[in-house]
Known about the structure:
This protein is an alpha+beta fold. It contains 4 helices and 10 strands, in the order ββααβαβββββαββ. It folds into 2 domains: 66 residues, no CATH class; 149 residues, no CATH class.
Amino acid sequence: MIICPKCGNDNPLGRVFCGKCGGKLDFSHTSSQDMVVKPESNWFRTHWPKLAYLVVLIVLIPVALVLWPQPPLVGKPGTGGETRVENGVRAVSAVKPGQIVNATFAEEDLNGYLQLIKAKDPGADSLSISLRTDYFVVRMVHPLFTLPVIKIKGQPVVAKLSYDITCVPYVSGGSVNVTKASMGHIPAIGPFKTKAAKAVYGAALRDKDWAPFANITGIKVTEGRITVTIKP
């Protein structure tokens, strides 16, 4: 700092005239140490609130993710129909090139299958589906990281993030259009919508049992049921 000889006001380095009275500053008694050390001290004094805010964010974000309430599963709960889904998947896998097969799955059977058998395969904490008329909703809850310092009933707390996507089948063809997506409780748009869709679809694509479903040529969704047409 440079002290004004006229009014005694402290002025930051770089000023030629006093910021209070406008008098010319005297640099004749300013040492090289003042020129080096004091600006560093001034920078910290100026920016420490921002640094403190950043530290608070780093600490609070993981805690917020842990405490943020996770949404429940979507769709009807599984009722032990996972065997029917397994049989349907095997039937699709047995289709030979040139053949056509229609496979129909009930919502509760799919959710039983996803929760008891396939939800853990892609590393998802849970995976569920809700079948509506002409569209369906998929929800995946994915573990992010573990906080070993925070424990509930002796177990480390795991921070989780949910992905929701709403899919509408195209009128012709086996593809679907992702019309809405969300990450946690926040709607996802732009690249975040793509990220949510890839997170859910990536889990299914990594499952080799569902590889034959890449040959879907048609999808029909009604309340509680989905029918896919497959032609290898």
